[in-house]
Amino acid sequence: MNLIIREARIIDPKSPFDNKIVDLIIEDDSVTKIGIGLPNPNNIEELKLENLHLSQGWFDSSVSLGEPGYEDRETIANGLKVAGKSGFTGIALQPNSYPVIDNQSQILFVKNKANACATQLYPIGALTKGSEGKDLAELFDMKNAGAVAFGDYNKSQDNANMLKIALQYVQDFDGLVIAFPQDEKIKGNGVVNEGVVSTRLGLKGIPNLAEELQIARNLFLVEYTGGKMHIPTVSTAKAVQLIREAKAKGLQVTASATVHHLVFTDEKLEEFDSRHKVSPPLRTDIDRKALIEGVLDGTIDMITSDHNPIDIEHKKMEFDLAKNGTIGLESAFGALMTVLPLETVIEKLTVGKATFGIKSTPIVEGAKANFSLFNPEGKSTFANTSILSKSKNSAFLGMKLKGKVYGIYNQGELLITE
Questions:
Q1: Which entry of 141, 172, 306, 320 is annotated as an active-site residue?
Q2: Please, what are the domains in the chain?
Q3: Is residue 306 annotated as a catalytic residue, yes or no?
């Protein structure tokens, strides 16, 4: 569709229009003109919204949906609509469906399901067959089919030699390995962060060491192989420091942190509410502040919602037995705005594309129209009515959010929240 976006403040340091209020004319999916008070002789549709801000399209590096196999949790079509109305023009889809996305045909299946959607889907292929950690999956075939990375969602690789081989193998086709950082033996039967809160509540704890030991091992493997690794959902202060040191050495390492680890601590567990049961677990305020520092100094490259819809039968139950995970697309921007400056939020929601080999262009004339639309001002309370996902397992219910997402323009489609 052709469109004129009126009086939008551009937030894009790579654009000559950064922090300027301008009009944008979009024709045939491209920006044909940027300026002030642009005429509309062809009487095309116009969009004007209160305090409208516009940035390059946001990208979420870790989103679980459900389809195929768990459509009761979420479908690809609705999940992508939720992402778009939450401001995301692209998501990396985790392979934790049923069957697991571990071969070329599964990659093609989920890509075809997303063809007609405004939000683009970039599948992550499983690193091992069935995500069982025993044999490497068809990595090269999945790469050719469109996989942007390889990892077993929320499952660490106990076999260090297999991870070493994977890091060596994918270098032939510039592949990216995602290594979830958790030593399962040290985690044991833990369900929450090990500390004062777990002791007081009588819940089995997961020590920070479970994450840090695994990261240290994986960084040695990266250094040995010269491979490229992404460490997702970092949650401890020591982990941030380990990654900072690895980057100083010049290792090809990137990292993400989740929205919920940046805004919540394990104090949220006082009511035994399983909505706050996530993996890795919510940590202490010392860890949360270290994550914020890591975001600000560039140690943590990107922020993810780690959106993971879980059906009520597996979530609203005894805390020890409930599945890990929270949905987070709808609340991501508003929650981040409560702890980080706007420019940092936009940077961390857009820069991750480069890690996954996804092209992005500054907001200039001639560029493809791929935009997130939002208002950084105003406050609201995240309520059940704010949830667009099929599953309702949000850790953010009742939280005071800052700002408002209007939607996106991408793939020639304007998708706006009601």
A1: 306
A2: 3-53+365-416 (2.30.40.10), 57-355 (3.20.20.140)
A3: yes
